[in-house]
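Predict both folds.
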Amino acid sequence: MCRHYSVSVISVAKERRTGQGVTTVTDVFGSSHKDVHEQVVFCADEQSGLRAIIAIHNTALGPALGGTRFYPYESEQAALADVLNLAKGMAYKNALAGLDHGGGKAVIIGDPAKDKSEALLRAYGRFVESLGGRYYTACDVGTYSEDMDVVARESRFVTGRTVAHGGAGDSSILTAYGVFQGMRASAELVHGTPSLRGRRVGVEGVGKVGHRLVELLREDGAEVVVCDVDPKAVERVRARHPEVEVVADAAALKAADLDVFSPCALGGALDDATVAALRAKIVCGAANNQLAHAGVEKQLAERGILYAPDYVVNSGGVIQVADEIGGFDMERARAKAAQIYDTTSKIFRIAAEEGVPPAVAADRLAERRMSEVGRIRAIWLGQ
């Protein structure tokens, strides 16, 4: 039997001591947590093994839109923390991408190589459908367009589908393209030209997005250094580009002599130690939630490192899947993704004018749009 839990406000996890020891529970109605989410849904289907969490940060600009991550989290608390951060990031990303969508995200707890099945994906689709269009799902780490086709057999609110089923296909194409545009805008500010030709770029993670970014960088004449925990991913890049340099791990890459460091793996790549070790003058990558904690953006600025906010430059993928909802047109979606260059440049200008790091300027711009447009959407239409 499927079980469906929905809470309207999410807050920090607290410990409750019982006679049986310490049990970790979630204080969903506490007022101390500033990142209030509209809705968090816990989904479980025992027979298929589904354990999923769907988080909707806000719907100020429209239905929430964000991918489904399939990942073997070490705990349910880790999965909850991740989905909340990702949902908030999607709200800001969609706002700055100019989309009429709020922020949402979902995580499925498990190893996609072992636990993914038709039954599990269809059970998940039932939960997405139960939200009645408040949340549109798509691909993310561990899920692919083919998986979305399965989910869509149980839900109307699925995008990022295969071309054969009327979708746009792999959203990593425009994700990488958008990151490249953000990198060009960064290079223009730092070096006076939007070209990466002759620049040394380190790409951490050459999976779905990273390997496509390498293609764009090589076409532009950049020197590329890569690392990945998956040897097969590195082999794929080297097969096409034998001239690409490979280093042992992320620590070696971050300490390398680079012009640009591009985090394209999981989040939290920029912590205190990383910032201290970085030799690059630009950070611009596809990974979500790159700042490990608040204050890292200030450390980057103090060291003279230009940070292109992740949710700005990696929005090409969500632009692609959002376009699919109304009937996909690659030329139209690519043109919109190209505007990431202008948006990134605008954020850098605001940051300079207001004397704040680019991450702060980006947040302010996104919050302004959510507030202004959200207010307009509250006007009663009398229907």
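Second protein follows, with its predicted structure tokens after the sequence.
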Amino acid sequence: MRLFFVKDFLDLVFPRNCLLCGRSLYDHENNLCSICKGTLPVTSYHLRPTDNDLCDKVKGLSTVGMVMAYLKFTKGGNSQKLLHQLKYRNKPQLAKELGSLYGKILNENGYSKCWDVIVPVPLHPLKQSRRGYNQSEYFGLGLSEALSLKLENSLQRRKFTETQTQKSRLERMFNMDDVFEVSNYSTLSGKSILLVDDVMTTGATLCACANVLLGNGAKNVDLVTIAAGG
């Protein structure tokens, strides 16, 4: 009885609302209500992981295998609102829930045995200190639980890079030269790696990371992001 009273009190003082629509959440809901989860712009990239427009983006930049994204990015849409929550509203558990949701889809479609380890794209220590967490890592943690895979922070970012929003595809790739390095070689040798990030635009960051992984003993690298545009 006392636990229920404490919970009711906390819900009153700190109401739990859906991060998209603002509705009050039920006990079984975490960050998103069931209605909003049901209307997320989920992609079908997992049905053709080696033959889609995301694969075309990275062609010539890296020899990665599968390329997939959970949500279709649209400006002003729910996917952009979720990414905004992750980057500016300190919502690590939202990133983890999105990873869990997509992990279940991948699991149901036979991907559970495709990889040996999940590696997130790292943030620069200064940026991670400001944000408080790495959203890509938490997305990876959700995937790791759903797919029963280990997550390893095997990469580190050694250079701080400016925002790439206004840069061309080629400029972004040049901007990524020597940005990443391996921090744990033992987790890579001969392994099939699932490299994860929050969003894919041109694919330059992901390809730079994939190239470092492949150059340091990874057997193969596949890419998965929370969202990606067409």
